[in-house]
Amino acid sequence: RNLGRKRVQGMLQRAAAAAAPKRWWLANSGSAPLLAPAYAAHQRSVPRLPIPPLGETLERYLRAAQPLQTLEEHSATRAAVAQFFDTDGPGLQRLLEEADAALPHDSSYLESLWYRLAYLGPRSPVPIHANPCFTLAPPSRHTPPLERAAGLLAKAAQWAHALRTGTLTAPTAKGGSPLCMALLPAVLGTARIPRQGCDVLHSASAPDAAAVCRRGEWYSVPLFDATGAPLPPATLLDSLKQLPPAAAHAPAVGALTAWRRDEW
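The chain above was modelled as a monomer; its predicted structure follows.
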């Protein structure tokens, strides 16, 4: 029990130290971009993620554990939880609240723990265990693949430009509650870099091109003109058409990302 308490104390102290005075991901992602000043008031209005009272947390834990246990096992778990509530629990709850209070307003106690333990820390292959995926809605009419790719790049550039200039509408939940925008500048232009033990994020401060893979070869396709304005779909389509139709003995570098993180 004492060993577990020391481990939790160390995790909370490291989380607070790593996050101050910036969010954890900002402090560990190189030259990460920041939100436009126009969103400062919106960010201040975002409610903090609350820390439930210790008793509520323990009751949730017991409800989650009950379907997985026999009656005897659950009875033993309840006894252990009751002992924790009367001994180490209150002190660890206080440490958690202190660590959370030291973080910026738009961060939370959960952020650094999530990145370290659930996202960047696990050593399992990323494509299967960590990366989310999404599918694009089918077009309303038949669109050649290159034309559709150019349209997707153009929309991404327009979204990034609106975010950088502060003209993107700040998001809200259905009930009107403001949603945090702190991570939006890193949606584009951010890469996960493998490191022993725990990966790191690296964000370009102002990405201006897209990495396009064609038949195993990678190319940089500019998305903005000299003034910083997004290029139109027709210009991006011309750029895609200029890519070589086939790569000559291109190494399949992308396959390396399917290995366990510490092995590649």
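The mean pLDDT is 85.
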